[in-house]
Amino acid sequence: MFVILWYGFGIVAAGWVLYDSLVVNRYVMPALKVGWPIVVIFFSVIGLLLYLWTCRPRGIGSKQGRAAKQMHSLFVSDEWKKIIGSVIHCVSGDGLGIMSAMVITRWLRMPFWSEFWIEYVVGFAFGWFLFQYGAMRQMGNPPLLALWKGGRAEFFSMITVMLGMGLVMRFVTPNVVGAPPPPNSAAFWGFGALGLMVGAVLTYPMNWWMVRIGWKHGMA
């Protein structure tokens, strides 16, 4: 019941976040207009609170045009908020790939390390080609340079996200439910969300470092 309520709230909240970023809080970066709803589905109330705390200025709906743009830019200009944006961008792509691969590998009953590395490769590919590359292109980089910069950022981000997921898969899940739960169980989706949240915490220092040296630009 907890998992159903968690994801039920997350899906509704993700729909609102998508609407808000398209209609009201319109100056959210294009990549994060996609990334925030994905993360909110998995992080539920925590994801929604993060969006309101770090990405949505209070009263943004009363502003228009340049005033709204300046208000949003000022609100997200703090370094820690930029890094949260970088983490959301990272976890949305990686998490979508990891969870997609996990569904397949669990149905096939693969052993732990086979499942782990397949999820790593698929998560890396999702993050690199669907999220990092597009973000680098939007910043004006030519295709090959965007591919290189996106892959470089994704390499370091994915290490820490998958570390969090792997720790939950290897040590937490077996001690709570025994065998790896199948995709048609609440435990599968519950521990999947937990793994992504642990990965988000672990990848924050890595994204802080990449924002500081200019490899990623964060939310601003």
Describe the structure.
The chain has 220 residues and is mostly helical. The chain has a domain at 80-213. The chain has seven helices and no strands. The longest helix has 35 residues, at 143-177. 45% of the residues are buried. Residues 80-216 form the DUF4396 domain. It holds the Pfam family DUF4396. This is DUF4396 domain-containing protein.
- Strand percent estimate: under 5%
As a percent range, the share of helical residues equals over 70%
Please summarize the sheet with the most strands: none
The rounded distance between the terminal residues' Cα atoms is 38 Å
- Average residue pLDDT: 93
Radius of gyration: 17 Å
Which spans of ≥5 residues are poorly predicted at pLDDT below 50?
A: none
Shape: globular
Q: Give the helices and strands as they follow along the chain.
A: HHHHHHH
Quick one: how many beta strands?
Answer: 0
> Structural class of the secondary structure composition?
mainly alpha
Keywords: Membrane, Transmembrane, Transmembrane helix
Organism: Nitrospira moscoviensis
InterPro entries: DUF4396 (IPR025509)
Transmembrane segments: 7-28, 34-53, 83-104, 116-135, 155-173, 185-206
